[in-house]
Protein backbone atom coordinates (compact mmCIF):
# COMPACT_ATOMS: atom_id res chain seq x y z
CA UNK A 1 0.00 0.00 0.00
CA UNK A 2 1.49 3.38 -1.00
CA UNK A 3 1.77 6.37 1.29
CA UNK A 4 -1.09 8.24 -0.42
CA UNK A 5 -3.62 5.41 -0.14
CA UNK A 6 -3.90 4.13 3.42
CA UNK A 7 -6.65 1.79 4.55
CA UNK A 8 -9.19 4.57 5.25
CA UNK A 9 -8.56 6.27 1.89
CA UNK A 10 -8.72 2.93 0.10
CA UNK A 11 -12.03 2.04 1.72
CA UNK A 12 -13.68 5.36 0.86
CA UNK A 13 -12.34 5.29 -2.70
CA UNK A 14 -13.73 1.82 -3.29
CA UNK A 15 -17.09 2.94 -1.96
CA UNK A 16 -17.09 5.82 -4.43
CA UNK A 17 -16.18 3.49 -7.30
CA UNK A 18 -12.48 4.07 -7.94
CA UNK A 19 -9.07 3.03 -6.65
CA UNK A 20 -6.67 5.41 -4.96
CA UNK A 21 -3.67 3.24 -5.83
CA UNK A 22 -1.21 4.36 -8.52
CA UNK A 23 -2.81 7.82 -8.82
CA UNK A 24 -0.82 10.45 -10.69
CA UNK A 25 0.86 12.88 -8.28
CA UNK A 26 0.09 15.97 -10.37
CA UNK A 27 -2.93 15.73 -12.68
CA UNK A 28 -5.31 13.17 -14.15
CA UNK A 29 -7.84 13.60 -16.98
CA UNK A 30 -10.95 11.43 -17.39
CA UNK A 31 -13.75 11.14 -19.88
CA UNK A 32 -16.42 13.58 -18.62
CA UNK A 33 -19.13 11.25 -19.93
CA UNK A 34 -17.68 8.26 -18.08
CA UNK A 35 -17.94 9.56 -14.53
CA UNK A 36 -19.76 7.76 -11.72
CA UNK A 37 -23.05 9.51 -12.58
CA UNK A 38 -24.33 12.32 -14.80
CA UNK A 39 -24.78 14.79 -11.95
CA UNK A 40 -21.01 15.10 -11.63
CA UNK A 41 -20.56 16.66 -15.08
CA UNK A 42 -23.45 19.04 -14.41
CA UNK A 43 -21.78 20.08 -11.16
CA UNK A 44 -18.44 20.64 -12.89
CA UNK A 45 -19.97 22.84 -15.57
CA UNK A 46 -21.91 24.87 -13.00
CA UNK A 47 -18.99 25.50 -10.65
CA UNK A 48 -16.10 25.86 -13.10
CA UNK A 49 -18.22 28.04 -15.36
CA UNK A 50 -19.18 30.12 -12.33
CA UNK A 51 -15.54 30.59 -11.33
CA UNK A 52 -14.62 31.76 -14.84
CA UNK A 53 -17.60 34.13 -14.87
CA UNK A 54 -16.55 35.40 -11.43
CA UNK A 55 -12.98 36.01 -12.62
CA UNK A 56 -14.14 38.00 -15.65
CA UNK A 57 -16.49 39.96 -13.40
CA UNK A 58 -13.74 40.58 -10.83
CA UNK A 59 -11.32 41.82 -13.48
CA UNK A 60 -13.97 44.17 -14.82
CA UNK A 61 -14.71 45.50 -11.33
CA UNK A 62 -11.04 46.28 -10.86
CA UNK A 63 -10.13 47.70 -14.25
CA UNK A 64 -13.40 49.44 -15.13
CA UNK A 65 -14.92 50.29 -11.75
CA UNK A 66 -11.66 50.81 -9.88
CA UNK A 67 -12.54 48.36 -7.08
CA UNK A 68 -9.93 45.61 -6.43
CA UNK A 69 -11.93 43.76 -3.78
CA UNK A 70 -13.44 41.22 -6.18
CA UNK A 71 -10.17 40.28 -7.86
CA UNK A 72 -8.44 40.07 -4.49
CA UNK A 73 -11.22 37.91 -3.04
CA UNK A 74 -11.10 35.58 -6.06
CA UNK A 75 -7.38 34.89 -5.69
CA UNK A 76 -7.47 34.91 -1.86
CA UNK A 77 -9.94 32.03 -2.16
CA UNK A 78 -7.38 30.05 -4.17
CA UNK A 79 -4.63 30.87 -1.68
CA UNK A 80 -6.89 29.73 1.15
CA UNK A 81 -7.55 26.47 -0.69
CA UNK A 82 -3.81 25.91 -1.20
CA UNK A 83 -3.24 26.35 2.54
CA UNK A 84 -6.19 24.39 3.94
CA UNK A 85 -6.77 21.48 1.53
CA UNK A 86 -3.43 19.55 1.44
CA UNK A 87 -3.40 18.90 5.22
CA UNK A 88 -6.98 17.60 4.94
CA UNK A 89 -6.05 15.18 2.15
CA UNK A 90 -2.73 14.02 3.58
CA UNK A 91 -2.75 14.66 7.35
CA UNK A 92 0.20 12.29 7.83
CA UNK A 93 2.42 14.48 5.69
CA UNK A 94 1.87 17.41 8.07
CA UNK A 95 2.03 15.52 11.35
CA UNK A 96 -1.73 15.86 11.87
CA UNK A 97 -2.75 12.21 11.81
CA UNK A 98 -3.46 12.11 15.55
CA UNK A 99 -5.08 15.56 15.63
CA UNK A 100 -7.15 15.49 12.44
CA UNK A 101 -7.05 12.06 10.85
CA UNK A 102 -8.43 11.15 7.45
CA UNK A 103 -11.64 13.16 7.07
CA UNK A 104 -13.11 12.57 3.61
CA UNK A 105 -12.42 11.63 0.02
CA UNK A 106 -13.60 13.32 -3.14
CA UNK A 107 -14.81 11.20 -6.01
CA UNK A 108 -12.88 11.40 -9.28
CA UNK A 109 -14.14 14.02 -11.75
CA UNK A 110 -12.93 15.05 -15.21
CA UNK A 111 -9.78 16.76 -13.93
CA UNK A 112 -8.08 15.75 -10.68
CA UNK A 113 -4.95 17.00 -8.91
CA UNK A 114 -2.73 15.74 -6.09
CA UNK A 115 -3.01 11.93 -6.36
CA UNK A 116 -6.68 12.21 -7.38
CA UNK A 117 -7.58 13.93 -4.11
CA UNK A 118 -8.43 17.41 -5.46
CA UNK A 119 -10.99 17.84 -8.29
CA UNK A 120 -10.73 20.93 -10.46
CA UNK A 121 -14.29 21.87 -9.59
CA UNK A 122 -13.28 22.16 -5.91
CA UNK A 123 -10.51 24.59 -6.88
CA UNK A 124 -13.19 26.57 -8.71
CA UNK A 125 -15.76 26.22 -5.94
CA UNK A 126 -14.03 28.55 -3.49
CA UNK A 127 -13.75 31.62 -5.77
CA UNK A 128 -17.16 30.96 -7.32
CA UNK A 129 -18.93 30.83 -3.95
CA UNK A 130 -16.99 33.69 -2.37
CA UNK A 131 -17.90 35.95 -5.31
CA UNK A 132 -21.52 34.77 -5.25
CA UNK A 133 -21.94 35.65 -1.59
CA UNK A 134 -19.95 38.88 -1.67
CA UNK A 135 -21.78 40.19 -4.71
CA UNK A 136 -25.20 39.48 -3.22
CA UNK A 137 -24.29 41.29 -0.01
CA UNK A 138 -22.69 44.15 -1.94
CA UNK A 139 -25.84 44.48 -4.06
CA UNK A 140 -27.91 44.76 -0.89
CA UNK A 141 -25.76 47.67 0.29
CA UNK A 142 -24.78 45.98 3.56
CA UNK A 143 -21.09 46.88 3.23
CA UNK A 144 -21.90 50.47 2.32
CA UNK A 145 -24.25 50.93 5.28
CA UNK A 146 -22.83 48.61 7.92
CA UNK A 147 -19.11 48.44 7.17
CA UNK A 148 -16.69 45.52 6.68
CA UNK A 149 -17.45 43.54 9.83
CA UNK A 150 -21.23 43.22 9.52
CA UNK A 151 -20.92 42.98 5.75
CA UNK A 152 -18.64 39.97 6.25
CA UNK A 153 -21.12 38.46 8.71
CA UNK A 154 -23.76 38.73 6.00
CA UNK A 155 -21.36 37.03 3.57
CA UNK A 156 -20.85 34.21 6.10
CA UNK A 157 -24.61 33.72 6.24
CA UNK A 158 -24.98 33.84 2.46
CA UNK A 159 -22.25 31.22 2.11
CA UNK A 160 -23.96 29.06 4.74
CA UNK A 161 -27.25 28.89 2.87
CA UNK A 162 -25.80 28.42 -0.61
CA UNK A 163 -23.05 26.03 0.53
CA UNK A 164 -25.30 23.73 2.55
CA UNK A 165 -27.72 23.16 -0.34
CA UNK A 166 -24.66 21.60 -1.99
CA UNK A 167 -23.16 20.05 1.15
CA UNK A 168 -26.22 17.99 2.11
CA UNK A 169 -26.62 16.61 -1.41
CA UNK A 170 -23.04 15.63 -2.29
CA UNK A 171 -22.63 12.41 -0.25
CA UNK A 172 -25.86 10.91 -1.59
CA UNK A 173 -24.79 11.55 -5.20
CA UNK A 174 -21.25 10.26 -4.54
CA UNK A 175 -19.55 13.60 -5.10
CA UNK A 176 -17.49 12.79 -2.00
CA UNK A 177 -17.63 10.56 1.07
CA UNK A 178 -17.02 11.40 4.72
CA UNK A 179 -14.91 8.98 6.73
CA UNK A 180 -17.31 7.42 9.29
CA UNK A 181 -14.33 6.13 11.24
CA UNK A 182 -13.18 9.64 12.09
CA UNK A 183 -15.50 10.52 14.95
CA UNK A 184 -12.98 13.07 16.22
CA UNK A 185 -13.77 15.50 13.36
CA UNK A 186 -16.85 14.13 11.61
CA UNK A 187 -19.03 13.98 14.72
CA UNK A 188 -21.37 15.44 15.73
CA UNK A 189 -23.20 15.55 12.42
CA UNK A 190 -26.49 16.72 10.99
CA UNK A 191 -27.58 13.69 8.96
CA UNK A 192 -24.46 12.87 6.88
CA UNK A 193 -22.76 16.27 7.19
CA UNK A 194 -20.31 17.01 10.04
CA UNK A 195 -21.38 20.10 11.94
CA UNK A 196 -17.76 21.26 12.14
CA UNK A 197 -17.76 21.47 8.34
CA UNK A 198 -21.11 23.27 8.29
CA UNK A 199 -19.80 26.01 10.56
CA UNK A 200 -16.09 26.31 9.73
CA UNK A 201 -15.99 25.68 6.00
CA UNK A 202 -19.41 26.97 5.01
CA UNK A 203 -19.41 30.20 7.03
CA UNK A 204 -16.41 31.11 9.17
CA UNK A 205 -13.82 30.72 6.41
CA UNK A 206 -15.68 32.83 3.85
CA UNK A 207 -16.70 35.49 6.36
CA UNK A 208 -13.16 35.85 7.75
CA UNK A 209 -11.59 35.90 4.29
CA UNK A 210 -14.01 38.56 3.07
CA UNK A 211 -13.34 40.73 6.11
CA UNK A 212 -9.57 40.50 5.61
CA UNK A 213 -9.80 41.31 1.91
CA UNK A 214 -12.10 44.29 2.43
CA UNK A 215 -9.89 45.66 5.19
CA UNK A 216 -6.65 45.11 3.27
CA UNK A 217 -7.58 46.20 -0.26
CA UNK A 218 -10.88 48.07 0.07
CA UNK A 219 -11.17 51.80 -0.54
CA UNK A 220 -9.81 53.64 2.48
CA UNK A 221 -9.44 57.36 3.10
CA UNK A 222 -5.83 58.48 2.82
CA UNK A 223 -4.46 55.19 1.45
CA UNK A 224 -4.63 56.04 -2.23
CA UNK A 225 -4.91 53.61 -5.13
CA UNK A 226 -3.15 50.31 -4.57
CA UNK A 227 -0.75 49.00 -7.20
CA UNK A 228 -0.89 45.46 -8.59
CA UNK A 229 1.98 44.21 -6.36
CA UNK A 230 0.37 45.80 -3.29
CA UNK A 231 -2.92 44.07 -4.05
CA UNK A 232 -1.08 40.79 -4.65
CA UNK A 233 0.70 40.54 -1.32
CA UNK A 234 -2.35 41.71 0.60
CA UNK A 235 -4.38 39.03 -1.20
CA UNK A 236 -1.91 36.33 -0.20
CA UNK A 237 -1.99 37.49 3.42
CA UNK A 238 -5.80 37.44 3.48
CA UNK A 239 -6.04 33.93 2.05
CA UNK A 240 -3.25 32.48 4.20
CA UNK A 241 -4.54 34.05 7.42
CA UNK A 242 -8.13 32.84 7.00
CA UNK A 243 -7.54 29.42 8.66
CA UNK A 244 -6.50 31.24 11.85
CA UNK A 245 -10.08 32.45 12.27
CA UNK A 246 -11.31 28.89 11.82
CA UNK A 247 -8.96 27.69 14.55
CA UNK A 248 -10.21 30.38 16.94
CA UNK A 249 -13.91 29.73 16.32
CA UNK A 250 -13.45 25.94 16.54
CA UNK A 251 -11.79 26.20 19.97
CA UNK A 252 -15.00 26.11 22.11
CA UNK A 253 -16.32 22.86 20.61
CA UNK A 254 -12.80 21.46 20.19
CA UNK A 255 -12.26 21.70 23.93
CA UNK A 256 -14.85 18.94 24.40
CA UNK A 257 -13.58 16.32 21.97
CA UNK A 258 -14.44 12.72 22.69
CA UNK A 259 -17.37 10.42 22.01
CA UNK A 260 -18.61 10.91 25.58
CA UNK A 261 -18.89 14.67 25.00
CA UNK A 262 -20.63 14.76 21.63
CA UNK A 263 -23.72 16.27 23.21
CA UNK A 264 -21.75 19.26 24.47
CA UNK A 265 -20.06 19.70 21.09
CA UNK A 266 -23.41 19.55 19.32
CA UNK A 267 -24.87 22.18 21.64
CA UNK A 268 -21.92 24.54 21.09
CA UNK A 269 -21.90 24.11 17.31
CA UNK A 270 -25.69 24.52 17.17
CA UNK A 271 -25.43 27.74 19.17
CA UNK A 272 -22.69 29.08 16.86
CA UNK A 273 -24.69 28.21 13.77
CA UNK A 274 -27.71 29.88 15.35
CA UNK A 275 -25.69 33.07 15.77
CA UNK A 276 -24.84 32.98 12.05
CA UNK A 277 -28.51 32.53 11.17
CA UNK A 278 -29.86 35.16 13.56
CA UNK A 279 -27.31 37.80 12.55
CA UNK A 280 -27.61 36.92 8.87
CA UNK A 281 -31.39 37.01 8.83
CA UNK A 282 -31.40 40.32 10.67
CA UNK A 283 -29.07 41.87 8.08
CA UNK A 284 -31.02 40.33 5.20
CA UNK A 285 -34.41 41.52 6.49
CA UNK A 286 -32.95 44.96 7.21
CA UNK A 287 -31.64 45.10 3.64
CA UNK A 288 -35.06 44.09 2.32
CA UNK A 289 -36.66 46.94 4.25
CA UNK A 290 -34.10 49.39 2.86
CA UNK A 291 -34.72 48.14 -0.67
CA UNK A 292 -38.49 48.48 -0.31
CA UNK A 293 -38.02 51.99 1.04
CA UNK A 294 -35.80 52.89 -1.90
CA UNK A 295 -32.83 53.57 0.38
CA UNK A 296 -30.38 51.20 -1.37
CA UNK A 297 -28.33 52.73 -4.17
CA UNK A 298 -27.70 50.30 -7.01
CA UNK A 299 -24.14 48.98 -7.25
CA UNK A 300 -21.85 49.09 -10.27
CA UNK A 301 -21.64 45.99 -12.52
CA UNK A 302 -24.53 43.98 -11.04
CA UNK A 303 -24.76 41.31 -13.81
CA UNK A 304 -23.01 38.57 -11.82
CA UNK A 305 -25.26 39.10 -8.79
CA UNK A 306 -28.34 39.07 -11.00
CA UNK A 307 -27.53 35.83 -12.83
CA UNK A 308 -25.10 33.39 -11.23
CA UNK A 309 -26.68 32.97 -7.76
CA UNK A 310 -30.01 32.10 -9.39
CA UNK A 311 -28.32 29.68 -11.79
CA UNK A 312 -26.38 28.05 -8.95
CA UNK A 313 -29.47 27.60 -6.80
CA UNK A 314 -31.69 26.53 -9.68
CA UNK A 315 -29.33 23.76 -10.78
CA UNK A 316 -29.01 22.47 -7.23
CA UNK A 317 -32.78 22.41 -6.82
CA UNK A 318 -33.05 20.29 -9.97
CA UNK A 319 -30.29 17.97 -8.71
CA UNK A 320 -32.09 17.65 -5.39
CA UNK A 321 -35.29 16.78 -7.25
CA UNK A 322 -33.51 13.93 -9.05
CA UNK A 323 -32.19 12.66 -5.71
CA UNK A 324 -35.50 12.73 -3.81
CA UNK A 325 -36.82 9.30 -4.87
CA UNK A 326 -33.71 7.59 -3.47
CA UNK A 327 -33.81 9.94 -0.47
CA UNK A 328 -37.36 8.94 0.48
CA UNK A 329 -36.58 5.29 -0.23
CA UNK A 330 -33.63 5.29 2.15
CA UNK A 331 -33.48 3.13 5.26
CA UNK A 332 -31.63 4.25 8.36
CA UNK A 333 -30.20 7.24 6.50
CA UNK A 334 -28.73 5.06 3.71
CA UNK A 335 -30.14 4.82 0.17
CA UNK A 336 -30.51 1.54 -1.70
CA UNK A 337 -27.28 2.49 -3.51
CA UNK A 338 -25.44 2.53 -0.19
CA UNK A 339 -24.95 6.29 0.04
CA UNK A 340 -25.80 8.46 3.09
CA UNK A 341 -28.47 11.13 2.83
CA UNK A 342 -28.25 14.72 3.99
CA UNK A 343 -30.80 16.75 5.92
CA UNK A 344 -33.72 17.64 3.66
CA UNK A 345 -35.27 20.04 6.17
CA UNK A 346 -32.03 21.99 6.58
CA UNK A 347 -31.37 22.08 2.83
CA UNK A 348 -34.93 23.34 2.33
CA UNK A 349 -34.44 26.05 4.94
CA UNK A 350 -31.22 27.10 3.21
CA UNK A 351 -32.96 27.11 -0.17
CA UNK A 352 -35.66 29.45 1.15
CA UNK A 353 -33.05 31.83 2.59
CA UNK A 354 -30.96 31.68 -0.59
CA UNK A 355 -34.06 32.47 -2.66
CA UNK A 356 -34.75 35.48 -0.46
CA UNK A 357 -31.19 36.70 -1.03
CA UNK A 358 -31.66 36.39 -4.79
CA UNK A 359 -35.05 38.12 -4.84
CA UNK A 360 -33.89 41.04 -2.70
CA UNK A 361 -30.70 41.43 -4.75
CA UNK A 362 -32.68 41.50 -7.98
CA UNK A 363 -34.96 44.15 -6.53
CA UNK A 364 -31.98 46.16 -5.29
CA UNK A 365 -30.24 46.22 -8.67
CA UNK A 366 -33.14 47.63 -10.67
CA UNK A 367 -32.43 51.32 -10.00
CA UNK A 368 -29.90 53.33 -12.01
CA UNK A 369 -27.52 55.26 -9.70
CA UNK A 370 -24.31 53.49 -8.71
CA UNK A 371 -22.56 53.32 -5.39
CA UNK A 372 -18.95 54.01 -4.51
CA UNK A 373 -16.49 51.19 -3.71
CA UNK A 374 -16.60 49.69 -0.22
CA UNK A 375 -14.66 51.59 2.41
CA UNK A 376 -12.69 49.71 5.04
Helix segment tally: 11
- As a percent range, the share of helical residues equals 55-70%
Percentage of residues in DSSP E strands: under 5%
**pLDDT < 50 stretches:** none
- Major sheet summary line: 3 strands, antiparallel
User: What's the number of structural domains?
Assistant: 1
* Total number of strands: 7
How are strands sequenced across the largest beta sheet? 1-3-4
Radius of gyration: 20 Å
Give the overall shape: globular
Mean pLDDT: 92
N- to C-terminal distance? 52 Å
- The helix-and-strand class reads mainly alpha
Order of SSEs, N→C?
HEHHEEEHHEHEEHHHHH
Written account of the structure:
The chain is mainly alpha-helical and 376 residues long. Helices cover 62% and strands 5% of the residues. Helix 2 packs antiparallel against helix 10 (303-328), helix 4 runs antiparallel to helix 5 (142-167) and helix 4 crosses helix 10 (303-328). The longest helix is centred in the last third of the chain and has 31 residues, at 262-292. It is globular. The model has no long low-confidence stretch (mean pLDDT 92).
